[in-house]
């Protein structure tokens, strides 16, 4: 039996039993309202009338409350029939909600097992609790579907397209029909290309946009995108998964319980040293705009640390490392690892460490006023890491961080999709306003690191 049905029957039974247990106490209220200074005769008359009412109620036992009790408490057939009717009503309401779906346009799929867009698409198509609320209308892949840019399409890409023939795959947004207002465009292209895709989606009529971090290469571009979205009443969310991940929430909760707390966020990736040239080229916007941008979004979201509020920015030169590497004939300068502490004008400070080759475990450590660590929250923990290692071993071609952060990616998309269906704001998900503040911090921090290292 549906839970709501059971609760409704209980409520009806309670009302029936309550109504049948005693006559309606009209004269009790009348008696209570009699002025204390009223004469004894008036009070006696009220008591006499009350006694008559009680006697009459005894003679007419089957008042409305008794009738309900008799029908639903003593008649099993009617009770079951009524429960079935209510169940059908609730079931239809639930199915009606499920029938309302969000249209999805994904832009920038990339290669299977490598591209962030591909992993988003995989979850949208297959994950319970998400797939039933969305309808993937189209996928835009501007590189692998463009014969002028990609002369030899990898087999893994063509195989995936063939396996999902129900989806309309195109090389540019213009090839798609205009979007409905309930359309969510998930943009996961190259950072330098995303502003163009963003504009095209709004011109096509999208009502919502889920933009992969950092959103744009520069603050100026992102601010222009925000203005465009605002003028067209388009709601924009950013894919900052650390804003909803459990280990960060645990650290924030502990820090808020202390008079003075310092939080250290350490973000690790599992690249090998030999893979850094390709990493630098693929993420040419730089470490702070790519990898550490998640932590910078946390500063803007939860610590009131923005460029305007920064009082000091201290870099640990012993740990931080700047490299100049070449890939396919081009030179790229970026950081393999960084550690810095930023303090705002209210003397609230946070440290961020990011290491491209640090492994699969990231954490948030909370320190008290004396600098003693009072809590450390790792992600993944030992059990989760063991599972991740097995999955990596079983599928070495898959980017490891997909396994590590899969639940966070799901949670973000689920909150955004359900917020569209409900008409409410997606709780805890970073908005484009937070993204602007985070990108400002990234540009500021990159400039400080480049000058210092």
Q: What's the helical proportion of residues?
A: 40-55%
Radius of gyration: 31 Å
Structural class: alpha/beta
**Which oligomeric form is depicted?**
single chain
Beta-strand portion reads: 15-25%
Shape: globular
Distance between the termini: 66 Å
Series of H and E elements: HHHHHEHEHEEHEHEHEHHHEEEEEEHHH
The largest β sheet comes out as: 7 strands, mixed
Number of strands: 13
Instruction: Indicate the mean pLDDT.
Output: 85
CATH architecture of the largest domain: 2-Layer Sandwich
Weakly predicted, low-confidence segments: 1-39
**Tally the helices: what do you get?**
16
Q: State the domain count.
A: 3
Which CATH class of the largest domain applies here? Alpha Beta
What fold name stands as the CATH topology of the largest domain? Answer: Dihydrodipicolinate Reductase, domain 2
How is this fold's topology laid out?
Blueprint lengths: L2 H19 L4 H8 L6 H20 L4 H11 L1 H24 L2 E6 L8 H11 L7 E7 L14 H9 L4 E3 L12 E5 L6 H11 L3 E4 L7 H13 L3 E4 L7 H11 L5 E7 L7 H7 L4 H4 L2 H10 L7 E6 L5 E7 L2 E15 L4 E7 L6 E6 L5 E7 L2 H13 L5 H23 L9 H21 L1
Parallel strand pairs: 1-2, 1-4, 2-3, 4-5, 5-6, 7-11
Antiparallel strand pairs: 7-12, 8-10, 9-10, 10-11, 12-13
Helix pairs in contact: 1-4, 1-5, 2-3, 6-15, 8-9, 9-16, 13-16
What labels would you give this structure?
3 domains; 16 helices; 453 residues; globular; Rossmann fold; Dihydrodipicolinate Reductase, domain 2; 7-stranded mixed beta sheet; 6-stranded parallel beta sheet; 47% helix; alpha/beta
Structure report:
The chain has 453 residues and is of the alpha/beta class. It folds into three domains: 95 residues, no CATH class; 112 residues, 3-Layer(aba) Sandwich (Rossmann fold); 186 residues, Dihydrodipicolinate Reductase, domain 2, CATH 3.30.360. Strands 7, 8, 9, 10, 11, 12 and 13 form a seven-stranded mixed beta sheet that branches. It has a six-stranded parallel beta sheet with strand order 3-2-1-4-5-6, with helices on both faces. The N and C termini lie far apart (66 Å). The N terminus is likely disordered.
